[in-house]
């Protein structure tokens, strides 16, 4: 008997939309790598780091949708955001000011 899987059209559209956004980010930054993390009931966060050090993130409604989107986009996906991967993020004056502002009130 054939294995039939229900395909949710709304989820498929979300995967396609996220994959397109990831691909556009990758193209704009000379390539990209990513990491997917659970964020509780909100779903999953896709953190993107470009080859130029630029970074950004996207939120998917579920972890499965996030995984499908990064797979469809073809970027390298890391298990965690640490070590060499985290070192690729370029931080500028804005980020440093913002981080210092949080510390000094």
Give an account of the 3D structure:
- It is a single chain.
- Helix 1 (9-28) crosses helix 2.
- The protein has four helices and four strands, in the order H-E-E-E-H-E-H-H.
- The protein has a four-stranded mixed beta sheet with strand order 3-2-1-4, covered by helices on one side.
- It has 105 residues and is of the alpha+beta class.
- The chain is globular.
Write the layout of secondary structure elements.
Blueprint: H1 9-28, E1 32-38, E2 44-50, E3 55-60, H2 63-73, E4 76-78, H3 83-87, H4 93-104
Parallel strand pairs: 1-4
Antiparallel strand pairs: 1-2, 2-3
Helix pairs in contact: 1-2
Brief synopsis:
This protein has four helices and four strands, in the order H-E-E-E-H-E-H-H. The chain has 105 residues and is an alpha+beta fold. It has a four-stranded mixed sheet, with helices on one face.
How far from one another are the termini? 64 Å
The arrangement of helices and strands along the chain is HEEEHEHH
Instruction: Report the β-strand fraction as a percent range.
Output: 15-25%
* Category by helix and strand content: alpha+beta
Percentage of helical residues?
Answer: 40-55%
**Residue-averaged pLDDT, rounded?**
89
Read across the widest sheet, the strand sequence of neighbours is 3-2-1-4
Instruction: List low-confidence stretches.
Output: none
Number of helical segments with 4 or more residues: 4
- What is the radius of gyration computed over CA atoms, rounded to a whole number of angstroms? 16 Å
Largest sheet at a glance?
Answer: 4 strands, mixed
Give the overall form. globular
Number of distinct beta strands: 4
